[in-house]
Specification:
The protein is mainly alpha-helical. The chain has one domain. Helices cover about 50% and strands about 10% of the residues. It is built from eight helices and four strands; from the N terminus they run αββααβαβαααα. Strands 1-2 form a two-stranded antiparallel sheet. A two-stranded parallel ribbon has the order 3-4. Strand 1 and strand 2 form a beta hairpin. The chain is globular, with a radius of gyration of 16 Å. InterPro entries: Bact_transf (IPR003362).
Length: about 200
Amino acid sequence: MIRLLDIIFSFVGLVVLSPMLLLIYILIIIESKGHGFYIQERIGKNGQPFGLYKFRTMRIGADADGQLTIGKRDNRVTRIGYYLRRTKIDELPQLFNVLKGDMSLVGPRPEVRKYVNMYSDEQRRVLSVRPGITDYASIEYVNESELLEKAEDPDRLYIETIMPDKIKLNMKYINHYTISEYFKIIFKTFKSLMA
């Protein structure tokens, strides 16, 4: 049933938002050279890699300097990219991932291989479900880049504190994998975005 809801909601979302998505794509390629989309390998259900779609918010090749982005001080982020990240609009192309079946609307945020390789056996349980666009961890850590910006060693803070805490929050959904929980997280996400 959740997969059917994902297909319906992602399809309707893409149709309704298509004029805005096209406009954003055009603005991105006008501001900086390169494609409007950024595709990054993430690890999905059962450890399978897939290409996660986002609007490109950094200059081409900027991810070679590291995969974490650090708040306002990250000069790799374009002007429009900063706005897209702050409003989470850069995540909208993931509706294509949901429609394809790589992701769900709700589920643990998919990580890059570097961080998945650090998971303990217990933490790898997050790979037992389809990753999602939103979850309890996304809501709790909506200001993650600002937290990283204040850290002396952002990568260490992420690995030792933020990532384990996010996985604990992921387990809350995995242990209550129901339609009511699915809608509850969607509602909480909209509420947090409007705050």
